[in-house]
Amino acid sequence: MSEYEWRILSDLSGVAERPGVYVFRGREGEVLYVGKARDLRARLRTYRSPGGDGRFALRFLERDAERVETIVTRTEEEALLLEDSLIKQHRPPHNVRLKDDKSFLMVRIDAEPFPRLKLVRAHQPRHGKGKGRSRFFGPYASARDLRQTLADLQRVVPLRDCTDATMSHRTRPCLKHDLGLCSAPCVGRIAAAEYAELVERAARILSGETQALERDLETRMRETAARLDFELAASFRDRLSALRRALGRQAVRPGSRAERDVLGLARAGGEALVQQLAFREGRLATSASHSFRSELADAELLHGVLTELYARGARGVPVEIVLRTLPAEPELLGHLLPGAEFVVPRAGERERMLALAEENARAELERRSVGRVADQEALSELARLAGCEERGEPLVVDGFDVSNFQGAHVVASRVRFRGGVADRSGYRRFRVRGARGQDDFAAMYEVVGRSLRRGLSEQNLPDLVVVDGGAAQLKKALEARDDVGAWEVRIVALAKARAERKVGGRRKGASEERLFLVEGAEPLELARHSSTRHLLERIRDEAHRFAVTYHRKERGRIRSRLDEIPGVGPKKRRELLRRFGSVVGVARASVEELGGVPGIGTELARTIRDHLARAR
């Protein structure tokens, strides 16, 4: 049975010397940090500074913590499970909760007669076209390097890279065949069996098995040079160089084939980032970065990272985990991660790998820092333009978009950005009720009014509203705001405009963004590369994406009403929609009009009309 004990850190005599979980709480009882230990008293003692002057070793505890709660468990495994449960329940601000930075690219080879190397994201479906399972290689951390690797690989293994549609319409080889970069299966220049051998060779290269191919290329190069065919020998030399560049770009190639994860840590203020390099079978299998805010010491932070990465069962535990410093409570982690060895290198191959991981971590942290500075500048400029500088930080911006299909099934979306970052808890979807037909202005008035009315009642108004459209949409949004009484909310409209600009002496159309700030005034044209324009476009595009996704879902739900009618199959449904344009049009049609559709008699026409009338 777990038991609760309340203690302050100045008196740890009553804290059990047993496994368990400890919870630091603030002045209002809020949970600040949750940790686990195999010996609670010894673990809490580490939070005091070494000098024994009573100070906390961590700044956030000194500043915010009022008390600590300890929860004793029977085993260390129970402590791990309880820690995970409490973190999920309370979401403490100082705990590490990892999220993969991005979905990495992989190479996919489908089971089809003349496959090509396709780039896909790791989160995409694991099956491709054709019979049988597709094969995947990767993931790869750098999209740019992967694309260059495939370009080099094409010199060694001339597989097609055109789409299926392009291949099926070719009547003669393209230029790549003349350059030796494609075997031209489109026009039968290579048999299926020979092409399959090329595919297998590419698969071996992507898997790191290249020794035989390197020897083959070297032999051909020497033989052609001996025959004084220097041009062909140079070609084989270039192919060999391309192959080695491709391999070098894929990964660091360790001498050991042991399963090894290398974790490089970089910090800047309260920001931290861990770069994880996972080596399997003697090559880099995964490169992923994980970022978070934390004021924990390195050892404590790494303890949390290792727990998140491995102890919760999300990833396989490697044989070696290479770090710059040992994590806190290494014995506890060793018990939770059986078979894993923590290695702190001083020299040699592991040290070089760790330096590489740390270099990548620093570069990624710096890149993100630059992006945050640009976003902050964009927010400050947007607040100045919209006249809401006094709102303070973070600036809360709502973006609206309306979507309809031929005037029917009108829906709208609201997305919320807080401090320049999408806040999905603030996303809302609207089914427009009052607007008739394709009246986007009335729809905008309705959804902005409904959103602001709810925001007033919940005291959750945004600082700024961005609507997709021009002067007319801005006017309707302002009318909705004033009718609701949310006068403190600023509203702007963003619209594209076709502009003419000279390129090389010719006039060429260019899409420019115009920002409508004040009703009746001329819009402001945003510079093409300004961070403010990019931020507004990001908000507008996200609102559009969210609206279209909802609209497609609604259309599918509404159309399913026809499928529910007895006697109406896919063919008759298509005929009805082709004749009347939409389900609404079908519902408005008379029995005689419905009966005039091919395959629809008078009796079925009455059934359709009665069914849709009941569904209204």
Describe the protein's architecture and organization.
- This protein has 616 residues and is of the alpha+beta class.
- It has 5 domains: 4-90, GIY-YIG endonuclease, CATH 3.40.1440; 105-250, no CATH class; 260-367, 2-Layer Sandwich (Nucleotidyltransferase, domain 5), CATH 3.30.420.10; 389-554, Nucleotidyltransferase, domain 5 (2-Layer Sandwich), CATH 3.30.420.340; 564-615, 5' to 3' exonuclease, C-terminal subdomain (DNA polymerase, domain 1), CATH 1.10.150.
- It is built from 19 helices and 20 strands.
- Strands 13, 14, 15, 16, 17, 18, 19 and 20 form an 8-stranded mixed sheet that branches. The protein has a 5-stranded mixed sheet with strand order 10-9-8-11-12. The protein has a 4-stranded antiparallel sheet with strand order 1-4-2-3.
- A hairpin with a 2-residue loop joins strand 8 and strand 9 (271-280).
- Helix 4 (143-156) packs antiparallel against helix 9, helix 12 crosses helix 15 (531-563) and helix 13 runs parallel beside helix 14.
- It is globular and about 80 Å long.
- Residues 1-7 and 505-509 have low confidence and may be disordered.
CATH topology of the largest domain: Nucleotidyltransferase, domain 5
Q: How many strands in all?
A: 20
Q: Helical stretch count?
A: 19
Which CATH first-tier class of the largest domain would you pick? Alpha Beta
The biggest sheet, with number of strands, parallel, antiparallel or mixed sense and barrel status, is: 8 strands, mixed
Quote the beta fraction: 15-25%
Structural class from helices and strands?
alpha+beta
